[in-house]
């Protein structure tokens, strides 16, 4: 890797850091705050941290595209990179609209995939990715079905799926670091280093963001963040031909999708909070992966705290990642 590429994630991290420091007081002044529901006193915390993360990622990508064009002379990938850039912009805009207006206009969960569908268009129109997929019985060429069906399914599925497992300090950022980090490694070792640069740039912003989002959080991610990181996961999987690996990495999210179905999607992930900050099961039954973690951890230790739940789920994702790396990239 050329040494001049190293500043890409550093630029992403620096821009995100500056924007976060500026955004937190602005969010409080604008009333863009939310209650930290897993704390006894429910303190107000600045929301929509995805604004700063998006700014950092776009800055890092622009630097990389500039190098790609004028120094590395690898213009072959610029169309794909700008399609990814456009998808990131569109999905972030949709996420911010959802953050600001979603609760006012009553956007339902089943409507959100439709809301995020336009973000897949840039990747669809350039026929991004590899139309041939490997199956146990051989290779299958999907042809026009791949950009028309699998690309939007990947972008919409990843962005909305990543949005489900949330609500605990550091959880979304921590999971994003593991998944994006895994895809960065996977795409690099399989010869798609230009795709891994998207991951490195994203990691630069995520590592800064988690500093402000870790318990006790000073900044919440918001839907703009979860849609953004989810879409980047989908983009990297499509461009790097790593769809099967990405799907495996989403196993915790699939579990988290199934569990709430038992409540008719009415149960919330937030725990019941004691006066000392420890957490209890909010319902008699398990309706979320976070509920399951509270239940299991209480069998090991007397008191469970928000940090325990976040770390336990991140550890599960790490185990899934290791299994995937051993299975697909020996």
Detailed description of the structure:
The chain contains 13 helices and six strands. The chain is mainly alpha-helical and 330 residues long. It has one domain. The longest helix is centred in the first third of the chain and has 28 residues, at 78-105. The chain starts with 6 loop residues before the first helix and ends with a helix. The mean pLDDT is 92.
Topology, element by element:
Blueprint: H1 7-29, E1 33-35, E2 44-46, H2 50-70, H3 78-105, H4 112-116, H5 121-125, E3 132-135, E4 138-141, H6 145-162, H7 171-189, H8 193-213, H9 222-239, H10 243-249, H11 251-258, E5 272-273, E6 279-280, H12 289-297, H13 306-328
Antiparallel strand pairs: 1-2, 3-4, 5-6
Helix pairs in contact: 1-2, 1-8, 2-3, 2-8, 2-9, 3-9, 6-9, 7-8, 7-9, 7-13, 8-9, 9-10, 12-13
Work out the helicity level.
Answer: 55-70%
Subunit arrangement of the protein: single chain
Report the portion of residues in β strands.
Answer: 5-15%
How far is the N terminus from the C terminus?
22 Å
Report low-confidence residues grouped into runs of 5 or more.
none
The DSSP helix count reads 13
Total strands: the figure is 6
Largest sheet: 2 strands, antiparallel
Class per helix and strand makeup: mainly alpha
Domain unit count? 1
Mean of pLDDT: 92
Q: Please state the overall shape, judged from the principal axes of the Cα atoms.
A: globular
Compressed to H and E, one letter per element, the order equals HEEHHHHEEHHHHHHEEHH
- Which strands sit side by side, in order, in the main sheet? 1-2
Rounded Rg = 20 Å
């Amino acid at each position: 890797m050329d040494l001049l590429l190293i500043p890409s994630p550093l630029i992403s991290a620096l821009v995100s850091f500056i924007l976060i420091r500026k955004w937190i007081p602005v969010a409080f002044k604008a009333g863009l705050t939310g209650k930290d529901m897993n704390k006894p006193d429910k303190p107000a915390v600045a929301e929509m941290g995805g604004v700063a993360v998006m700014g950092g990622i776009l800055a890092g990508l622009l630097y990389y595209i500039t190098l790609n064009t004028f120094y590395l002379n690898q213009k072959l990938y610029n169309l794909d990179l700008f399609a990814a850039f456009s998808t990131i912009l569109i999905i972030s805009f949709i996420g911010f609209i959802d953050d600001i207006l979603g609760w006012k206009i009553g956007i339902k969960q089943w409507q959100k995939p439709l809301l995020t569908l336009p973000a897949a268009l840039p990747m669809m129109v350039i026929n991004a990715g590899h139309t041939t997929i490997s199956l146990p019985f051989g290779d299958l060429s999907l042809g026009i079905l791949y950009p028309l069906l699998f690309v939007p399914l990947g972008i919409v599925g990843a962005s909305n799926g990543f949005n489900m497992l949330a609500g605990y300090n550091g959880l979304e950022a921590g999971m994003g670091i593991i998944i994006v980090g895994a895809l960065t490694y996977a795409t690099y070792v399989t010869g798609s280093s230009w795709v891994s640069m998207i991951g490195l740039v994203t990691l630069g912003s995520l590592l800064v963001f988690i500093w402000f989002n870790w318990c006790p959080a000073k900044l919440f991610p918001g839907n703009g963040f979860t849609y953004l990181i989810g879409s980047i996961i989908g983009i990297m999987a499509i461009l790097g031909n790593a769809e099967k690996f990405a799907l495996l990495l989403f196993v915790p999210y699939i579990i988290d999708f199934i569990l709430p179905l038992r409540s008719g999607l009415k149960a919330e992930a937030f725990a019941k909070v004691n006066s000392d900050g420890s957490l209890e099961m909010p319902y008699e039954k398990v309706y979320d992966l976070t509920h399951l973690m509270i239940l299991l951890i209480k069998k090991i230790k007397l008191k469970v705290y928000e940090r325990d739940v976040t770390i336990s789920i991140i550890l599960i994702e790490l185990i899934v990642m290791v299994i995937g790396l051993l299975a697909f990239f020996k």
